[in-house]
Amino acid sequence: MKSYKFIVSGTVQGVYYRKTIKENASKYKFNGYVKNLTNGKVEAVVTCEDRKVKEFISILKKGSIYSKVTNIVESTINEIYTKGFSVKY
């Protein structure tokens, strides 16, 4: 398993984006977190098998009914998350 970090741009703050990502990521048993950044973007981190990354990206792209994702930048990180999915503040 690897961990991936995503920086999500667009209309993603103040539109229930983090709440929706947490609900959907938890529903599909992903581990990691989502949090707002001071620059108006959202950071999402997930630990999963390579074959499940596209599924998580789909969750990020869909977002909430009020959000609009315009860009997602992906990178890998060394930290491993195993205790569910949370919203960080």
Order of helices and strands: EHEEHEE
User: How many angstroms does the end-to-end distance come to?
Assistant: 26 Å
The DSSP helix count reads: 2
CATH architecture: 2-Layer Sandwich
Largest sheet properties? 5 strands, mixed
Average pLDDT reading: 98
Q: Can you tell me the number of structural domains?
A: 1
- In the CATH scheme, the class would be Alpha Beta
Structural class: alpha+beta
Describe the structure.
This protein has 89 residues and is α+β, with helices and mostly antiparallel strands. The chain has helices spanning 17-27, 53-62, and strands at residues 2-11, 31-36, 42-48, 68-77, 85-88. It contains 2 helices and 5 strands. The chain is globular and about 30 Å long. It starts with a strand and ends with a strand. The model has no long low-confidence stretch (mean pLDDT 98).
Describe the protein's topology.
Elements: E1 2-11, H1 17-27, E2 31-36, E3 42-48, H2 53-62, E4 68-77, E5 85-88
Parallel strand pairs: 2-5
Antiparallel strand pairs: 1-3, 1-4, 2-3
